[in-house]
Amino acid sequence: MRFMSALLVLGGFSAILAPSALQAQANLRVVSVTHTTSPLEPGTVETFSIVVRNNGPNAAADPTVLFLLYDLDFVMASYSGDPDWDFHSSGGTFQRKGNMPDGEIETIEFSVFIPSDAAFNSTGLFADAVYAQIQSNTADPNYANNEATTSLVSQARSTLTIDKKLLTPNVAPGGYALYEISVRNLGPSDIGGITVLDVPGANLVGSAVLSPNSFNLYIPSGDARSVFASVQVDPAAPVGASFSNTASISTGGAVSGAGTNAPPVFSVGSPDTDGTGV
Q: N or C end of the chain: which has fewer CB within 10 A?
């Protein structure tokens, strides 16, 4: 027989108990959500851990856990946590295989890939937060502990190299030498705001004239950008003399996207000096 309600008689007074008071209940809690490979770097695989608990008094039916990186794109890479849980590769959703017993504490460990351009696709809203939530098909008497948020350090990291090539190998005194300067980003993160500098050396006069894209360069991870420089050979330089100039990279104005909240870290290759004869 199914009881929709119960009648309670106390000292001549009667009261109707709500059906929810007769339902099975499971007080689920997100104990913690942790980024175990801090700082988060776009272009890398990052590992997280979520600890959940059923405070009872009954088993929780078919619980699910939702994981979010606020306003940052990610792709599920692997799962290594409690075998009672499965993950959906299309997003940060985890499904338990069956009910979660009363008193059970379980750990969900997993890795996600953060695309190298994720921080540039972010608006910056809550860019420093990780969120987890648990729910089930069993009534929960306390939803206040079903979710948890923790801070996140996000930081771009890039290795930049520079290479310079003389495009005009035979330049007469007073003529102009033309160079191609190639800046490559070995990753793992995309980077913007890079400036290319060129300083004339022996037997060159004036300042180098750089192509308009020499500043505020955006370079995706694994890609390169070319800048061109023109500089005059000293008209008084003797035939047979050598000339040279040095190209370098400035990261002083570098940006790494709204989805990061710590300054970018760089490994920058040595300046490239190129010389040849007049």
A: N
| pLDDT above 80 for 234 | yes
pLDDT tens column, 74-129: 888 889 889 999 987 666 899 999 999 999 999 999 999 999 999 999 887 666 68
Give every CB contact of residue 11 below 8 A, 6+ residues apart in sequence.
none
CA distance 60 to 71: 30
How far apart, in whole angstroms, are the C-alpha atoms of residue 63 and residue 95?
6
Tokens for 3, please give them. Answer: 């009881």
Give the pLDDT of residue 157.
Answer: 95
Contact of 93 with 64, CB cutoff 8 Å: yes
Are residues 43 and 116 in contact, defined by beta-carbon separation less than 8 angstroms?
yes
Long-range CB pairs of 161-170 (<8 Å, 24+ gap) are: 161/186, 161/269, 162/196, 162/247, 162/248, 162/249, 162/268, 162/269, 162/270, 162/271, 162/272, 163/272, 164/247, 164/272, 164/273, 164/274, 165/274, 166/274, 166/276, 169/276
